[in-house]
């Protein structure tokens, strides 16, 4: 459930990356495994496994993406899956630890990329919708539709990329599960350590969707490998700084094109 800037930044850094503007339609596929754990606002730990299956269509300056995930949550019922928002803290629902799993919330997005003439500056304008396909009765999702609008800025300076994200999220809410809208943002960098390997850091901050949790604040470190012209691999680790974020997390992503 990492920010999409994470994958974009590592792939952009490596030579021959396939995030360039495609004159002909190009399809990319990706999947991975994301694990996180934390107590959030509770005294008990919640563990979340998240496995996304994504398809991306690049056509000119436009990129369309859809993600269909599997999610597994083990905990006291005080955390709900939030799709692209991340885990959402709520009042405890159980006195015992339970495990629930199934289809997560499907997320679809459309981006427009503006690139400077010298190919060193990229600006992405993105609209995103989270569909309530995850079961709210099993705490896998909120049961409501969310919308996000954001701008991603990436500046290439030699072998180093600097990037930042700013956006706003509109949360679906109900009398029984009250959520709040909020801003989101991130800053970071990535750099080549070899022609086929990059490393980087990203700091993420969001206004909490929960009325009871602190604003999520976390840092992600990642390593990306260009395995071939068609395949990219990335691993990452996460450390949270507030009870709105997981205490720790780690994951792996693999992307490929035909």
Topology, pairings included?
Blueprint: H1 4-13, E1 22-38, E2 46-60, E3 62-75, E4 79-80, E5 88-89, E6 98-103, E7 106-115, E8 121-131, E9 146-157, E10 160-170, E11 182-194, E12 197-206, E13 217-226, E14 231-240, E15 248-256
Antiparallel strand pairs: 1-2, 1-15, 2-3, 3-6, 3-7, 4-5, 7-8, 8-9, 9-10, 10-11, 11-12, 12-13, 13-14, 14-15
Notes on the protein architecture:
The chain is built from one helix and 15 strands, in the order H-E-E-E-E-E-E-E-E-E-E-E-E-E-E-E. The chain is mostly beta strands. The protein has a single domain, classed as Lipocalin (Beta Barrel). A twelve-stranded antiparallel barrel has the order 1-2-3-7-8-9-10-11-12-13-14-15. The longest helix has 10 residues. About 3% of the residues have low confidence.
CATH architecture: Beta Barrel
Summing up helix and strand content along with how strands pair, one would put the structural category as mainly beta
Please tally the helical runs, counting DSSP H or I stretches of 4 or more residues: 1
What would CATH call the homologous superfamily? Autotransporter beta-domain
- Oligomerization category of the chains in this entry: single chain
Strand order in the sheet with the most strands = 1-2-3-7-8-9-10-11-12-13-14-15
The biggest sheet, with number of strands, parallel, antiparallel or mixed sense and barrel status, is:
12 strands, antiparallel, barrel
Q: In whole angstroms, how far apart are the ends? A: 25 Å
Helix percent band: under 10%
Low-confidence stretches: 13-21
